[in-house]
Amino acid sequence: MNLTLDSKVIIQGFSEFISPTHIAQMKAYGTNLLAAVNPGFSGQKIHALPVFDLVEEVVIKFGKIDITLIGVHPYQVLDAALEAIAANIRQIIIISAGVPPLDMVRLFREAESREILVVGPNSSGIIVPGKILLGTQPQEFYAPGGVGIVSRSSTLTYEVAWELTKAGLGQSISVGIGSDAVVGSSFLQWLQILDEDDATEAIVLVGQPGGGSEEAAAQYIAEAIDKPVIAYVAGRYANSTKHMSETRTSLATIVGRSANFGTAESKLLAFQAAGVPVAERPSEIPELLRIRV
Amino acid sequence: MDLLEYQVKEWFGKMGIPVLPSQRIDHPTDLKHLKISYPIVLKSQVHASDREKAGGVRIVETTIDAIAAAQSIFNLSIWGELPEVLLAEAKYDALEKLYLAVVLDTALCRPVLLGSREPNSDGESWGDKMQYVVVEKEFSPFYARRLVLKMGIQGTLMQSISDVVEKMYQLFIQADLDLVEINPLAINAHGQVMALNGKVKVNERAINRHPEIAKIAVKVAGRQHRNHKNNYMNSVLGSWDSLEMLGKIGILSYGAGSLLATLDLVTKAGGEPGVCLNLRHSFLADITPTTFCQRLEKGLNILTTNKIMQVILINFVGTVPQVDQIPEVIARFMLPHQQESKDSKTKHDAYLPRLVVRLGGAEFNHTRKYLAGLKISHESLIVVENLDIAVEEATRLAQLPGLKK
User: Fold this and answer.
1) Pairing of strands A278-279, A229-233
2) What is the pTM of this model?
C-alpha cells in the first residue's frame, strides 16, 4: 500500500454503496479526492466532484492517479477495475458488494500479474484516523492512536473501532478487506503492513465464516508477528449448514482440508492454537488489548 | 441456486456435452406420445441427491408400466419435495463410470477441475481418490488434459473426456456457475462417453445478468412459496445472506458480519435467534434491482409473517443507504399494527412482534428522534444506541408473553 496525505484519489461510479455523505466526509477529512468517473455525465458536477466519462480523461487533467474507489453497480465492477488498470492506477478499492465471483477471478489474474493492489469487493475501505479516509467508514467512530484493525466485515470494522475509541484506545489504520466470498488483498498482506507500520502497536483481526483466510492468518501471526494480536470471529453460533458459503466450499474435503473448513469453529481453533486471544464480543476487545499491551 | 436434471441436460446438450435422448414428462399420459424407444429410465426431477434409493428412478419396458411408474413417482415425496416434472430417458449400457466437476474454490479464488474414477460419493475415502487441477491463469484446454491424465486415463479416451471437461468449463464461465458436475460420466464398450446425470449450481450474485436464468429463479422461488404455504421465508432463504434458526428473535442487519455478530450476542445472552436477514443484498427472488428501504420493508414483513418471531432486532451502525427514509418504513410497519390491535377482536390470529432498534452513530440522530416521538405503546418499540444493551432488551422482550391482538 502506497498511501500519503497527497495521494490522488478518484471515485468510479455512484451506486447505493457510496452516498453523498461518504463523499462529503472524505473531502472534509482532507482526502485528496479529485474527480469522479461516471460515463455519460462528463462536464457535470456530482456531489461537488467534477465528472468525467473515462478514467484516462481524469489522468490527462490531473496527472497520475494513485487510488480509485469503485462504487459502480456490481456487474460493472470488472470493467471499471480494468479501466483503472489501463489508466495505470495501481491501487483499487472496491466498495460495491455482490460482484459475481468469476468477474473477480478474472480481475485477480490480471492484477496479480501486474502487482496491482485490489482491496474488496464489499469493502468499507481504509482509514488512517486524523489523516486520510478512503471509503465508507464513518470517521466519527475513530480517533488517532496505536491499534491497527483488519476486518473482513465492513460493519464490524467500525463497530470494533467504536468500542476501542469509547475505551480510549485510538487506531493507527483500519481496513475492511471485504466481506464477499472472494476478495483481493488478504489478511496476510495487511498483517505484514501493520507489523511494519511504526504507528501500529497492536492489531485487531476480525473474521467471519467462509474460506480459510483466518486459519492462514493465525499461522502467520504465530510465525511472523511480534506485535500483540487480538482476534474476533463473528458467526460461531450460526448453524453453518444453512450458510451457503459453506456448501460453496464443499470441495474442501476433496482437496485435503478438514471437514469443518470454513466454519467459525475452525477459525477459533486456529487462533487458539496460535496463542491469539479471541474476544467473545466486540465490546470485550479493549479489555483483551489492555491485558496484552 | 440448483437446477433440476432436465434443465442441466438441456444446457449440456447446447454446449455439445453428450447426453442421451430424453423427453420431459409433465403428466403420466405424456408417455403415450414418447419419441424415444423402450427400455427407458424414468427419473423424478427433485433436488435430493439420493432419489434413486428413495425410489425416484425406475427402468420400464412398456407404456403401461411406464404410466404406472410415472404415477407413483409423481406421488413420491423425496425429502419433502414432490416432482413437478419427470425425465424419460433412453437406457445406457455403461462399462465404466467417472466423476467430473468444475467448481469455484473461494479459498483459492480460482476455479478447480475435479475428476475421479469412482463416481460414487458415499464412501469416506472418496476424497482420497479425487484428482484436481487449479485453473491458475486464463483457461486453456491443457488444464483439462492435465486433469484426465492425473486420473490415469490415456489415448483417445483421454481426448474425449478432456473435451467434455473443456465444455464444462465453458458452461461454468458463460453461466456464472459455482459448480457444474457430471456424476456419472459413463463410458460404453465402444469408448464413447455420455453424461448420465449432472448438477449445476448458479451463483446467486450473477443470476440477474442472465435473463434466462433469472426466469428459472423466479419459478424456483414461486415453487418454494407454493410448497411451503405457511412459510413464505423459504422463497427468500437459500440465499447465502440469510439464516433460518428456530428461535423467537428475528434479526435484520446491514452486512453479513454485523448479522452474525448480533446472532452470536443474542445466543450468548441466552436468547434464541430466529430468521436472520442481511439487508446489504437483494433477496434471491428479487430479479429487479431493489433499494435498501424496500429490502428493510420486505425483511420486516417476512419476519412478521413467521409466527414464531416475537421480537425483531434491527442492528444498524455507522452508515446505511437511504438513512432519511428509515423512519417512514418503521412507522409504516408499526402504526397499522397498533391501530389494528385496538379495534380488532375480529382478526383471530393476528400477531405483532416487538421491535428493538439499535442505531449506532450520528447519521441516525434524526431517525432516533423521530422514533422516540412515535405514539407507540411501551415495550413494542425500543430504540437504543449500544449493541450489548439492544441484545439484552431483545432477549428480555422475547421472554414476555407474546403480544396477541
Assistant:
1) parallel
2) 0.90
